[in-house]
Design a protein that fits this description.
19 strands, 5-stranded mixed beta sheet, alpha+beta, D-Maltodextrin-Binding Protein, domain 2
Length: 467
Amino acid sequence: MRIQRLLTGFLLFSTLLTTGAGCFGGGATVSSAKITLKVWGVFDEEDSWKTLIEKYHTQHPNVTVEYTKLRFEEYKEELIRAIAEGKGPDVMAVHNTWLGGFTDLLAPMPDAVNVTRMETQGTLRKESVLVATSESTMSMKTLKANFVPAIIDDVVMPYAKDSKTDPVDKIYALPMAMDTLALFYNQDMLNAAGIPQPPATWKDFQEAVKSLTKIDAAGKITQSAVGLGLSENVERAPDILSVLMMQNGVKMVDERGRVTLNEVPKGAARDAPPGVDAVRFYTDFANPTKEVYTWNESMPSSLDAFVNGQTAMFLGYSYHLPIIRTLAPKLNVAIAALPQISTADLTQQVNYGNYWAEGVSKDSVNQDYAWNFILFATDEDNVTSYLADAERPTALRSLIASQLNDEDIGVFAAQLLTAQTWYRGLDVDAAEGAMNQLIDDFLASTYGDDTQKAVDNAARVVSQTYL
């Protein structure tokens, strides 16, 4: 009889698991049926996610995670189309500059998720059992404590269930990594020019440009110091111009969400908007009348020019390093921190952040598991395998120290706590187009001597993307 009772109990327990009748404290139930989570990314290879996915599956054996890499050029359009057709992923990579325009496609993080996980139970005889659990997600306090500052304003946005409900702040995505803009340089070219150290300030940078630039009698640039000053053939020109503005004291957007890149910040000890000076500084490198002239429209892209040995310096992100090494394996490339206006006061340093964050589709039927996977993947104990495989700088405060001595990503990691970003509205392409047009207008003297008009026009166009 005892054996019969044990057998009956075992069968009942098995039925509860397979039918999803495991109960939570709140009375909710969750199914242990097989679940497939579709994850879409852009630049990461599948191998970078392999360890993460396997580890998650060990804890959640009823969940299979399928990672798909799409080409960047097609990603945004394909993602929106797939979601509209009901064929989209559960978890999607969203660039930080896209987040504001993606809120209608994303499900905000809930306060708790209902999932199943494998647990070891028993004292004398331990066994692995699939248990239904209700797990808290992440509080705002934890978000701010764990992640680098720049992501907070990007991933936290107001959410209202309906028009009658007051909006509350919710987390819409979490990053596994974060990149920063840095200075790549050709060590051989700097050595030949007698420059012992890469420039740490923009004043030193200007002097280095003068020493490195070679122009023949016909006025042709035979050796450029850096690809800078234009919009078309400069890699990530809007980012470079943005960080120059912010370093110079420009407040790109105020607390009310109003575009203010054309204004003098309140309390600033100056009359002229600092944005004008920043654009002028940037465009001087492509202005033949300036001492720092080193770049023009006849040049290839700034990345190609650096790889080909036509320029001595290049402003880029950590993701550019494997590209450079693949295209020019013999190039003696080194990396230094992004130049600052001054290095005397570390509290005044401003760097620039660039990253992708993982969000959950509002149309996913597996939102709890999708958010559970994101929280798992971005956790300190789990994300390290991804960071090592993908060779990315971390987005977590706690892991920065462990990356500082890394030859490839140490410089980028060291800038994370001083990195900033800014929200570019619902149409990031239009906003970046406005920044590029601002550069073109300055060089073409579109507004004559009234350079303020060029900055005002850029601010107006960016403002329109906020509507």
